[in-house]
Write a structure and sequence with these properties.
Helix 7 crosses helix 8, helix 7 crosses helix 10 (256-268) and helix 9 crosses helix 10. Helix content is 40%, strand content 12%. It folds into two domains: 7-170, P-loop containing nucleotide triphosphate hydrolases (Rossmann fold, 3-Layer(aba) Sandwich), CATH 3.40.50; 201-269, Conserved Hypothetical Protein Ylqf, Chain: A, domain 2, CATH 1.10.1580.10. Strands 1, 2, 3, 4, 5, 6 and 7 form a seven-stranded mixed β-sheet that branches. It has helices at 7-21, 44-47, 65-77, 96-113, 133-141, 183-191, 202-216, 218-225, 234-244, 256-268, and strands at 26-32, 53-58, 81-84, 121-127, 160-163, 167-170, 174-175. The chain binds guanosine-5'-diphosphate. Belongs to the TRAFAC class YlqF/YawG GTPase family. MTG1 subfamily.
Length: 284
C-alpha cells in the first residue's frame, strides 16, 4: 500500500484510531519482531494511553529468536505485556486470548459486579503499514476477508469479526505512520520492507545492511556470499559480492544498484536466515 504521510494524513489517521478506541477494551499493537522499537509509531503511547494494550512482536519467524527473548524480557521489565507472534503461520496466536483475559480481568470483574452480562472482549489491531495487521485479522477470523480499501464518499459502519466466542475484533485495523526523523530507523524499516524502496536510496540501504551484517552476523555474510574474509572497507565488500554474483558490467564496472538490490532482496527473503536489527539497550 502506498501511503503518503502528509501532516493532514497523519492527523486523519490519528483521528480514525481515536474514534475506534472508543469502541474497544484492548489494543493489540503489532510491531515487527526484527525491530520492535523502530517499527512503532512515535506517538502510539500517547494515542492509546487510555486503553490496555498487548504488544505483539510479529514476524517472529523472521527474527533472531535469541534477540526476541531479550525483547520479551525488556518489555516485561517495563511492565508492558508482550508476546511473540507469527501471524502468517498462526504460531503464538493461542496465547493472545489468555493474556487478554488477564489484562482485562479487573475491568470485566467490575462490570460483572455492576450486573453487566459477560460479553466478548472487543479488540483493535494497530500498527504501521506492512507489519502484518491484515494477515493477523484474517488469521483470527479464520477466513480471507475481502480487502475493501479506500472508498471515497462511502461512510462504512464499523464491522466486527468474531474470534471464537470470546473476542470481537474490529475488521479494519488502526494504521499509524512509522518514525521518519531518524535515518537509521529509516534504513531498518527499508531493509525489512516496511517502507517503499523509492523513499530512500537503494545503495544507502545496502550500505547500512552490509555494515549491520558485518558487525552482527559476520559468519552469515561470509557464508551467503562465499567470502573468505570480510574486507574492512565497504566498497571492496560491495565489489566482492558483485563479482560473486555477476553484477559486474563490461570493463569491470560494478553495478552497484544491482548489487544493492540483490543484497536487500536476499535479506528480505531470509536467505541470510532470521535477523534482528535492533537489540534492547541499543540507542535507536
Ligand atoms: P499490513 O499492512 O499491516 O496489513 O500488513 P500485511 O498483513 O499486508 O502483511 C505484510 C506482509 O508481511 C505480507 O506479505 C504478509 O504475508 C507478511 N507477514 C505478515 N505477518 C507475517 C509473519 O508473522 N511472518 C512472516 N514471515 N510474514 C508475515
Amino acid at each position: 500500500m502506498a501511503i503518503q504521510w502528509f501532516p493532514g494524513h497523519m492527523a486523519k489517521a490519528r483521528r480514525q484510531v481515536t474514534e475506534k478506541l472508543k469502541l474497544i477494551d484492548i489494543v493489540y499493537e503489532l510491531v515487527d519482531a526484527r525491530l520492535p522499537l523502530s517499527s512503532r509509531n512515535p506517538m502510539i503511547d500517547e494515542i492509546v494511553s487510555s486503553k490496555p494494550r498487548i504488544i505483539l512482536l510479529n514476524k517472529a519467524d523472521m527474527a533472531d529468536a535469541r534477540v526476541t527473548k531479550e525483547w520479551l524480557s525488556y518489555f516485561k521489565e517495563k511492565g508492558i505485556h508482550a508476546l511473540p507472534l507469527d501471524a502468517q503461520s498462526g504460531k503464538g496466536l493461542k496465547d493472545i486470548l489468555p493474556l487478554s483475559k488477564i489484562v482485562l480481568k479487573e475491568k470485566f470483574d467490575r462490570l460483572e459486579a455492576k450486573g453487566v452480562r459477560p460479553r466478548a472482549i472487543r479488540a483493535l489491531i494497530i500498527g504501521i503499514p506492512n507489519v502484518g495487521k491484515s494477515t493477523l485479522i484474517n488469521r483470527l477470523a479464520k477466513k480471507n476477508m475481502a480487502k475493501t480499501g479506500d472508498r471515497p464518499g462511502v461512510t462504512t459502519a464499523q464491522q466486527w469479526v468474531k474470534v471464537g466466542k470470546e473476542i470481537e475484533l474490529l475488521d479494519t485495523p488502526g494504521i499509524l505512520w512509522p518514525k521518519f526523523e531518524d535515518p537509521l530507523v529509516g534504513y531498518k524499516l527499508a531493509v525489512t520492507g516496511a517502507i517503499k524502496d523509492t523513499i530512500l536510496n537503494l545503495q544507502d540501504i545496502a550500505v547500512y545492511a552490509l555494515n549491520f551484517l558485518k558487525e552482527n552476523y559476520p559468519d552469515r555474510l561470509k557464508d551467503r556470499f562465499g567470502l573468505e574474509d570480510i574486507p574492512d572497507e565497504i566498497v571492496p565488500l560491495f565489489d566482492e559480492i558483485a563479482e560473486r554474483r555477476g553484477a559486474v558490467m563490461s570493463g569491470g564496472i560494478v553495478d552497484y544498484d544491482k548489487t544493492s538490490e540483490l543484497i536487500i532482496r536476499e535479506i528480505r527473503s531470509e536467505k541470510l536466515g532470521p535477523l534482528s536489527f535492533e537489540k534492547p539497550g541499543e540507542e535507536i
